[in-house]
Amino acid sequence: MSDVSQKDLDEFAQEADAWFAENTPGEQDFMLPLTFMEVGTDQQFDFLRDWQRSVYEAGYLGAAWPKAYGGGGLTQAHQDLATAAMRKYRGPIILNAIGTGWTGPLLLDIGTEEHKKKYLKGILSAEDIWCQGFSEPDNGSDLGNAQLRAVRDGDEYVLNGSKIWTTNGHYAKYMILLARTNPDAPNKYAGLSFMLCPMTVPGIETVKIRKLTGEHGFTQTFFTDARIPADGLMGKEGEGWNVAMLTLQYERNAKGGQAGGYVITETDPLEILDLARKTKSAGKPVLDDPVVRDQMMDFIIETQALNMGRQRAKLPPLNQDRPMALPLMSKLMHTEYARRINEFAIGLQGANGAYYINEPNAVDAGYWHRSYLNAFSATIGGGTSQIQRNIVGEHVLGLPKTR
User: Fold this and answer.
1) SS3 2
2) Which of 183, 177, 121 shows the shortest CA–CA distance to 151?
3) Which domain holds residue 310?
4) Which of 224, 265, 308, 359 could hold 355 in an S-S bridge, CB 3.0 to 4.6 Å?
């Protein structure tokens, strides 16, 4: 559907606005996660799964994915309008982040026809939750040194080893997995393969990890002689590193194709403006302090700059000098900004900033503390901020590779 009129888009935008205005849930009697990495209870999981299914069935998730695989068959412009309406009404996050944001686009890009028909609709409907098996206990940022073994045995691979920081691993039906199929390869990257791994086979066990935020959004996943179908191999054996790097482009939003919606609640600086108005210091709103006002304006300006950068990235004539600069900087800039602005919000609270959720004197029920602590997950997942700076230095600025 390449030819679409402005009238069609306007009508779609109005329909999406009306749907989210009517159907966006209000406050619940339990804590709604601010990020897909904060889902820690069955109640939260079930609520968010139902929410994603309703958004999908209304036509506002996967709108730009092909109809043949469960999508809407529309354009990215349609999906962008639906996501904008979701943001406007502050809808809950989309639960199946690794499916809608990373696995789905990857399958549409390089998956087989069988892969697309088997997996994509379940991703959109949240029937099939996906997790990611990249990091390992002894090989965190050194992804290329992954040691989980996958040995081919007929039509199956036999897996042994473990993965860690597996977000929603205990709820997942499938995992995107980086495994070592050839320990004798000439270099560590050549020995890796990328697989679509079912989580329900014997020999796969997940153990919850309690996070600093207090919930269990992560797990460690153990593989003990676990047998998975060999038809889940993406590409050929030994090509796993290249597939993983493509996956990380989706995770870092350096490449498009995601199903839409959002998986992390972004901090609105105007909400912090309200916080600064109602928070008192020496009997006066902290916003009366000229230093605070100056800092507040810096964050508002930075928010506008980041939003304009997103728009500019969609216009090739404005990026001819360094086409990949904005996509490669996006993850670093947005995640570090989220960390800093939430830290600023806590600082405005003075002594009350020491209170966390479930404490009587916590400001806004501890919302800003949750948002701040969750921001650290985003600065680590998909490559740490240090790694992102290396990527920008090497691939945008042309600096020599670090050791």
Assistant:
1) coil
2) 183
3) 269-395
4) 359
Rounded mean pLDDT, 300-326: 82
Q: How far apart are CA 190 and CA 238, in angstroms?
A: 5
Domain count, the chain: 3
The arithmetic mean of pLDDT across residues 111-116, rounded, is: 96
Q: Write down which residue in 251, 283, 317 finishes a domain.
A: 251
d(CA 247, CA 239): 13
The strand ranges marked E within 172-294 are 174-180, 192-198, 204-209, 218-229, 233-234, 280-281, 284-285
Q: Give the lowest-confidence range in 204-218, 339-353, 378-392.
A: 378-392
Q: Quick one: tokens of 20?
A: 């989210």
Residue 237 domain flag: yes
Instruction: Provide the greatest CA pair distance for the chain.
Output: 75
Domain with residue 279: its CATH number is: 1.20.140.10
Token readout for 31 is 């804590």
What per-residue confidence (pLDDT) applies to 255? 85
- 292 residue type, one letter: V
**Same domain flag for 273 and 368:** yes
pLDDT tens column, 326-361: 877 888 888 899 999 999 999 999 988 899 888 888
**Helical packing angle, 290-313 and 325-347, nearest 10°:** 160
Distance CA 123, CA 328 (A): 26
User: For residues 167 and 172, what is the distance between their CA atoms, to the nearest angstrom?
Assistant: 9
Cα–Cα dist 29/40, whole Å: 15
pLDDT at 402: 66
Task: Identify the CA nearest to 84 among candidates 20, 6, 11, 5.
Answer: 20
Alpha carbons 82 and 23: distance in angstroms, whole number: 13
Nearest to 258 by CA among 378, 99, 93, 114: 99
